[in-house]
Amino acid sequence: IDRLPDGVDYHPGWLDAAAQTALLEDIRAVVAQAPLFTPRMPRTGKPMHVRMSNCGALGWVTDKEGGYRYQTTHPETGRPWPPMPEMLRELWNRLSGCKAPAQACLINFYEADAKMGLHQDRDEKTFSAPVLSVSLGDDCLFRIGGLTRGGPTQSLRLASGDVIQLGGESRLRYHGVDRIYPGTSMLMKKEGRINLTLRRVDPV
Ligand code: MD3
Ligand code: FE
Fold first, then answer.
1. Interface ipTM
2. Which residues does the annotation say bind 2-oxoglutarate (predicted)?
3. Atom 11, ligand 1: residue with shortest CA distance
């Protein structure tokens, strides 16, 4: 209904069913090498609602002691992150407008009852490059706000195969996932949602 803010590029249904299935297989292979871990909030150690993994040169991790950061290795196995699947590298090259390759792909896995509170993404060393998100599996209710907490927000139902990119003046907007709509996708045998976010961490 509302127009999306400048800097938000929404591509509903960008990936067809075959592409979603192929990408899901790629992500399963990544997670077999780099198992999902439970991220914990800095200082409190409170677990987040999602489980995570990463692929690419860098991965986003967080724990009680070390806080939010990017690192080259899995926090539990100590091994380097698996390479980013070709489909994701190509998606970044096609849509991001960034000459440099994506460095990090964060994989968020949402169970049927999981959510993600409103937050800003500001752990990268550059905000010039966009963040590109790919949704797989069940629909979710995604919320996007302004550059400060509070103030008006807009909600969007994201579905499997949707791609949404946040750049420019929207790169630092508050955003979160209010809920999953379990059983709304046939992509996976189980309920749940996977979100992939492709990013640059270092300035180009
Ligand atoms: C808006 N993930 O991993 S992706 C995250 O669906 C994250 O799992 C959500 O927020 C998810 O940090 C949302 C869409 C997204 C990603 C980055 C943004 C929206 C954004 C950066 C700025 C504004
Ligand atoms: Fe985020």
1. 0.97
2. 108-110, 193-199
3. 195
